[in-house]
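Researcher: Checking consistency across runs. Here is tRNA 5-methylaminomethyl-2-thiouridine synthase TusC again:
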Amino acid sequence: MSKKFMYVNRKAPYGTVYALESLEVVLIAAAFEQDVSLAFIDDGVYQIAKGQDTKGIGMKGFSATYNALGDYDVNKFYVERESLEERGLTEDDLMPIVYEDEDDDWAEKPSVKIVSRAEMAQVLSEQDVTLSF
């Protein structure tokens, strides 16, 4: 039985290496067919926000890579509702990240699930390994 790995993303997508490093580690874990989930808390919610434009800071944007994670069976994205609200964001401000459900005739389904702070604590407690970025 494979272990459940949760990658907790708390940092804004640019300005530090944390977000990109997390995404790279997630891709590696997914390549080894681990049971991978992602949590977006605090400024981490900005990592999957729509309309990221990195031209002004001279960095290559990597947010589109989140859309590819479904191809690696990474389709559990938990976003803390309170973190969104504290930043004036809603679910509509997030990228529409989906995966194709092979058990449902390859229907596209949303990967992002908005959860309360209490629900996030429950999800985190159910993991075997939690890595925070």
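Researcher: Does this match what you'd expect to see?
Model: One thing to look at in this run: The first strand starts at residue 4 and ends at 9.
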